Structures are given as C-alpha cells and as structure tokens.
Amino acid sequence: MEIGNLERLASLDLGDNQLKGGMPASIGNLRALNVLRLGRNQLEGAIPDGIGNLKALTDLHLDENRFAGPIPVSIGGLTNLNQLHLQENQLSGEIPDAIGNLSRLQGLFLNDNRLNGALPSSLGELSSLRYLFLGNNQLSGAIPVAIGNLTNLFSLDLKNNGLGGSIPEFLGNLASLTYLHLGSNQLSGAIPRNIGRLNNLSRLILSHNTLNGLIPIELGGMRKLQELLLNNNRLSGCIPVSFTSLCGKEVDLSNNPNLPGGGSPEAWNAFCSSGGVVGADTNGDGICETSTVHPDYAALKALYLATNGDNWTNNTGWLKNGDPCSGWFGVTCSEGRVVALNLSGNALTGTLPPEIGNLSNLQGLYLCYTQLSGSIPSTIGNLSNLQGLDLCYTQLSGSIPSTIGALSNLQYLNLLTNQLSGSIPSTIGALSNLQWLLLSNNQLSGSIPSTMGALSNLQLLYLYNNQLSGSIPSTIGDLSNLQWLHLGFNQLSGSIPSTIGDLSNLQQLDLSYNQLSGCIPGTFINLCGKSVDLSNNPGLPGGGSSTAWNTFCTSGGIIGADTNGDGICETSTEHPDYAALKALYMATNGNNWTNNTGWLENGDPCSGWFGVSCSEGRVVNLSLSSNALTGTLPQEIGNLSNLQELNLYSNQLSGSIPSTIGDLSNLHWLMLYNNQLSGSIPSAMGIYRICSGLCYLTTS
Q1: Which of 287, 443, 479, 538 is the most buried (most CB within 10 A)?
Q2: Nearest CA to 385 among 352, 360, 355, 368?
Q3: What is the mean pLDDT of residues 31-42?
Q4: What separation in angstroms does the CA of 280 have from each of 177, 223, 510, 513?
Q5: Is the pLDDT of residue 698 over 70?
C-alpha cells in the first residue's frame, strides 16, 4: 500500500530510524496531516514540491537527514506551520522569500546546511517566531533590518556564516531575547551600546569577527548574563568597571590585542581578583590601571588611621586587602568605586582627614553618632557627586567650610548637634538641589545669609538653638517648597517678614525665644491651623504667646497685626473697615438690597460679605452695582484707606458725592454712573490730587 493513499492520516512519526532513499512525492496527498516527523534518518534527495499541499501541517521535522537541493518555495503555503526543522541536512541555495508567509511559525531551524545568499527581509514577517537558527551555513550580506520586528524572539543563532557589516542597533529592541550567537562571521564596527538593554539575555557570543572600538559598559549591567564571548576581535580600551558583575561567569575576551593583556584569561583574572581595578579605567582618564591598589584605598586608609579604626565597633575587612569593595564594613560600591560610606554609631574618634575629599565617586557620607572632633576639612568640597552628608551628633568644631557650596548635587546636609561656630557661609545658597538643611544645636553666629532664598528645592530648614542674630531675610519667602522652618532659640531681631506667610507648603514654623518685634504679618492668616510658635519674643504682641497667636487667628488676622500700615498692632477685634461699611449699609437701605449676603452678620467684611474683596485682611474692592442701593453716600466711605475699586453704578443713590472720596489715596477705579447723584464734584477729587492713582472715573 502506498503511503499517499492514507488521506485521513493526521500524524506521521517515523523519526529516529534508519530509513533510506527519497521522500515519496505522494506524501503530498496526505492533506489531513498535522504532524510529519522524519528526522534522524538517512533520507536523501530533494524535498518534494508536493510538501506544500499539506495545508493542515503544524509540525514538520526533516532534520538530521541527507536532503539536498533547495528548500521548496511551496513550503511558504504551509500557513498553519508552527515548527519547521530542516537542520543538519545538505540543503543549498537561498532561503526562499515565501518563508515569510508562515505567520504562525514559532521555531525555524535551518542551521547546519549549505544555504547561501542574503537573509530574506521577509523573515521580519514572522511575528510569532521565538527561535531562529540559521548558523553553520554560507549566508552572506548584512543582517536585515526586518529582524528587528521579531519582538517575541527568544533565541537568535546566525553563527559561522559570512555575514558582514555592523551589528545592527535594532537588536537591542528584542527585549525577550535570551540567547544571541553572531560568532564566526565577518561583522565589523563597534558593539552597539543598546545590546546592554537585553536584560533577559543569558548568553551573548560575538567571538571571531572583526569588531572594534570600546567594550560598552552597559554589557556589565545585564543581570541575567551567564556567558559572554568577545574573543578574537579587534576590541580596544580598558575592561569596563561594570564587568565586576560578570566575575565568576563564563567570560572570554582573549585575542583582542588592544585590550589589557590582550584580553587573556590571566588579564581577566587579574581584573576580577583586584575588585575591578587592574585593567579598568577607574579615574575616567582613559588609562587602564596596572596596579592592584584600589583608587579609593588611600583615602579610606587615611580615615581608618585618623579615627582610631582598630577600636571601631566594627572594622570587618578594613585594610585586610587592597579592595574596599570586597566586603569592608560600611562601604558600598558601584562599578568598582566607593559610592557610600556609612560608619554612623561605630565609635570613630579623632579627626576627619583631608584625604576624605579624594573619594571622587562618593554619593553618601554618614558618620553620625560618633566622637569625631576637630574641623570639617575644606576638601569636603571636592566631593562633587555627594548627595547626602550626615555628620550629626559628633564633637566637630570650627566653622562650616565655604567650599561646601561646591557640592552641587547635595540633597541632604545634616550637621545637627555639634560644636560648630562662626557664620553660615553664603555659598550655601549655591546648593540648588538641597532638600534638607539641618544646622541646629551648634554655636553658629552672625546673620542668616539672604542667599538661602535661592534653595528652591528646600523642604526642611533647621537653624534653632544657635547664636544667630540680625533680621530674618525676606528671601526666606522664596522657598516655595519649604515645609518645616525652625529658627527658635537664637538672637534674631527685627520684624517678621510677611513673605513667610505666603509659603503655601509650610506646616511647621518655630520662631520662639528670639528678640523679634513689630506686629504679626497679616499674611500669617494663611498659617492659622498649622504648627506655629512665636513665643518668648517680648517685642511681639503678647510676647508671641500661644494666646496671642490664637487671638490673631480667631480675629481673622486682625488682633496683633498692623492692618492700617501705621506700624500699630491692632488690639480690637473690630475689622478696621467695618465701621465704614456699616455706615454705607445703613445709609443706603442695606436691608432692601438685592443681595446683602453676609453684611453685618459678623465683624469681618473679608469673611464672605457680598461685593467685598480683600487682600492681606483689608478691603480693596467694593462692587455693589445694580444692587438696589438707595439713599446717600456717607462721609465714612473715605475711611476705606486700602480701597482700589469702588463700583456703585446703576443704583438709586441720591444726594452729593462726599468730599471724603478724596481721601481714598489707593483708589484706581471709581464708577458711580446711572444713579441720581446731584451737586458738584468735590474739589477734593481734583485732577492734581487723584490722577496719580485713579485710572477710571465715571459719574454720568
């Protein structure tokens, strides 16, 4: 019986036998076939074109035979194909473009044949492909851009062909890739840096090409990489410090004459055993280190000796070898350099050596709760990468070095509870990234530098319990992100800047135990309900006591404030504009206004009275147009000293315009038209008296 007669056959598996001869053409009659496995036999000859008739086929395994000739173009019609295994035969010719029609294909294995020509760009149409193995053929040309479309690809093997050109950048977009083998080709140019973005890659083999340039540091950040073969190329420069993460993995850099030691195994071992120093460029000067001494070793040794390291609570690892990144207590490294030093509470005594400034990659220095003494070395300003400096609760003395202003990346500065003296350096205003500034409990003197107003990112400012004097700079009000401001227990004098009341993010304000004087700024109404302490300032209303503060808040920001700008702090609960507005209400039949919401219901016109607008606790705009006002304008209208706009048009006002209108020196806008006013315009409103401020006057 001929095999071609089995037309209902769904699966045919004759693999792993010793079958010989050719594949019968009648196999194309098996149109119901889903699986055809003839692999690992001794079959030979051409693959019949009739194979393209098997439209239901999902798995085709003809691997490890002796099939020869071209891959039939008809294979492109097997649109249900999931797996195509033709590897380890003697197939020749080009890979047909029709292969791109197999949109469901997940595995394409054509390796170990005699295929030639360029890779067809139609491979990029195989959007479901996970495994592409084309190695050990005679393929040539560049790797096509279309390969970058295979975003589901797990494995890409193009080894041992004649592929040329550079390694394409788009390979870095194949985020699912776990295996990439491009070895033994004719690839040239630099290794693309974005290969380092392949975070799932476990094996990367680029050996036996003519690749040149530097090794990308990004390769050292590939956390799943277990095998890296870059041998037999023309790579140059130093071994990236980031490659310390690959020590203990399978790495071959050999036969790259321009790498340290030619990239030999001995050179690689020296790099790893030195903690990523020997063979690396640790200083960024392009020079590969030849010494085993770590670039941060000398500075840390100086710190150890200057602070009685033998008697630290924990000195594990220190000076036991030349590599601080090999487990020294309190030392954190990145790419082979010390980036953080945390020895807080570790019984350090003695002084900070100037060599501390040589830790050029340091980002965090934490030495709180120790017995350090002496001054802060000026070389601290050399730590340009420093983000956190924590020297609190020690016995440091002397002044804060002005060089601290050079720490442009500093975000956190904590010098709490020391014996520091002298003035706060003005250079501190250059720390544009600073978020926390903690200098409390020292002996600092002089004034608060106005340059602090430039610290736009500052959230905490603690200067309490020092000997600071002079006035509080108004520039403190520029710190729009400030949440905590503690200036208590100093000798500050003068008035409190009103700008502090405009700090919308402020949650805590402590100005207690100073010598501040004057009134409570009207803007402080914004701080009512927040934590505010003005106590023990004899020159403030009520000495700044909590009672005085509560009275200020409950009076709507009146009692204790200078509401008239005359320097006199109010002692009455009645709003300074209340009497004038009450007189207007009574004189114009307020009970019958169209809208009299809020009027005379309380003593604060700024608490929602209809038509009244306020600024800093004073009435600045009175708009009662078209509101059925009758009667006359009272003389008291002239007492609204902060008024800028008066709009009373379209009412039934009668009588004359009171001469006291001329007292409204801040008035910009006066509209009284469409009323029944009579008499003459008061001379007090003369052009020479009011035109300097009045912008618009309508009485018609």
Answers
A1: 479
A2: 360
A3: 96
A4: 29, 20, 52, 57
A5: no
